[in-house]
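User: Second chain of the day. Same drill as before.
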Amino acid sequence: MSSERDPLLPSSASNGANGSLEHDRPPQSLSQRIVGFVRADGQPSWLASYKFFFFGSYLNALLIFVPLSVFAHHLNWDAALRFSFSFLAIIPLAKLLGEATEQMSAKLGQTLAGLLNASFGNAVEIIVGIAALMQDEIRIVQTSMLGSILSNILLVLGCSFLAAGYKMKESSFQQTAAQASSSLMTLACITLVIPAAYHSTQAKNTGGHDGQFSTQPSLSTGLDVAGEQGLLFISRWTSIILLGVYCIYLYFQLKSHRELFLDTKDDVQEPPKMNIFAAGVALLAVTLVTAFCADYLVASIEETAERYHIPKAFIGVILLPIVANAAEHVTSVWMAMKDKMELTIGICVGSSIQIAAFVVPLLVIVGWISGHEMSLFFANYETIVLFVSVILVNTLIQDGKSNYMEGTMLLALYLVIALSFWVTQI
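Assistant: Same format as last time:
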């Protein structure tokens, strides 16, 4: 039976007509294609793109702190001002990074979008981590990475479950996909336990201090030369293995089993607000500006911590991740309130997997290449904190359902951890 949606001409005729039109149209030269691409034919104009990019959120008002951060650093203002301005500048920059990535993803398709999100989803963490690594702030690198994982799986996921519980009695999500993601998170956590176990054994043999923090800008593990070389050997090759596993996970998520990670609820896809070329230029520009602000932020941490008696561990684990993940925090909670729990789980657990299985191993490799001795050995206390956090998250999401009580438990653990790092000295 025919309906209003049936075409007036058969599909073959229609295809033939379209094919003849395409055949009659003269082929475009390379220069014409480039001009058409730059002009963004059929896409939002450059003016409309950047109008949305810079004026699409009230959070962008904080961009005023970007030039203030530059002035404060080069004019050598008080350490608290330098830290605060850089801290506040990174918040809107993180939002703009996420926005540019999302706008490019809308045109590139799911597979390329996934790869793009894998590269730029945690761009702020990578930039801050490399900036700290180049300044030999190994402990800041490790604590900020640990804090990013904890903030995602405890703070953000907890707030999301709590927000969803405010709207609905119970929410549900894809159980198999959530378990696959949490299992990879567990694997990444175990790869931190093994170096800690190795260090504990070697420290007893050499009389070193097991799991103690150090202020030295190197491993400072308390091991002899052979022990430190063994720890670096384990960390570097484990990082290579983790990067390989993460690549396989991307194929699993984006290609072979992508139906497990799709939101089954009907949703109307919004049209892109930026053309792809404008989004790409914005992405590169914001990444460059973020790199400078991150460098200024890291440079001010040491003086700020000493002058105002703020533990560097608290700055690394609690403050820096909240800034870097500000955009993801808001998005995750908003998606949870709209009952899009697959997206919420993907943001929280998926981002943690990126950090644990991609960003941390990548920083170890970068340190290997640049001569900075970054390892997977975190202090024993930090390793235990991460391990129990992952256990709690796995326990709560294994049934594929969530409620406000589960969110309360996640937030309670995060607050306890924050209190403990307030009195932790590095």
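The chain has 16 helices and two strands.

User: Great, on to the next one.
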